Amino acid sequence: MARKPNDYKSNVKPIWCPGCGDYAVHAALMRAFAELDLAPENIVVASGIGCSSRLPGFISTYGFHGIHGRVLPLATGIKLSQPDKTVVAVGGDGDGLSIGGGHFPHAARRNIEIAYIMMDNSIYGMTKGQASPTSEKGTKQAASPYGTIEAPLNPILLALAYNTSFVARAFSGELKEMVEIFKIALQHPGFAFVQVLSPCVSFANTYDLFREITAPLPEDHDVTNITAAMQLAQSQAPLYRGIFHHSVRPGYSEQIAEIQQRAPKITTAELMDRYER
Q1: pLDDT tens-digit readout, 95-114
Q2: Were 79 and a residue from 25, 87, 132, 264 both cysteine, which residue would form a disulfide, CB within 3.0 to 4.6 Å?
Q3: Topology annotation, domain 5-251
């Protein structure tokens, strides 16, 4: 019997604000799991800290709610210990680009076989609306009453600069498109990064803006051309959705397994005997 999205829904009801974009991400991820017919027991979803990082509790797969900014090393460890599992890392822009920003390039260069979904609302929603690394310059919030003076980071451009093997952007207001992107990311044999524009309705409601300025990538875009992808990633009007880059190279856990096969087999007793000498 074919699986259905609700087969992945837990008994814990989401507690995001009504209208939050993360509800759509939750729905799209469950639909992607179902359409790929993935067994719940073969999926692990890891997260950091923040509104979006609550997601593992709302699905019936294995989940691990980690600490702030550490979702990528957590997911990497899970994948290396359970290489047969589908591993998904989820988190927000603050979690992934501020305290966790140092882990992003290393997950990319290792090409660890996980799908990383960054729900980007350009705000710290859980802590009542501080500006985040992707907030527009001049953003006024309680913690920045005169407007932020920092320029925002561009997650897509960063991922491309790190030579991430799969880079895409989705919008929570385009559910079907998001499902298709998730399906490809989940099957990608390497590090797949998906930025989801997921507006915070309480502190930074940009739904109408994104409906106006986002657009699908040009049909003739070559996803193997990373230079062209970088040029498209810098566009702000339109703000492009879709797959910017898609290439295949050996994955990290695959290469680790090959080394383990070549390395000599040494027992703990033999190793301790060497030290005792």
Answers
A1: 999 999 999 999 999 999 99
A2: 87
A3: Rossmann fold (3.40.50)
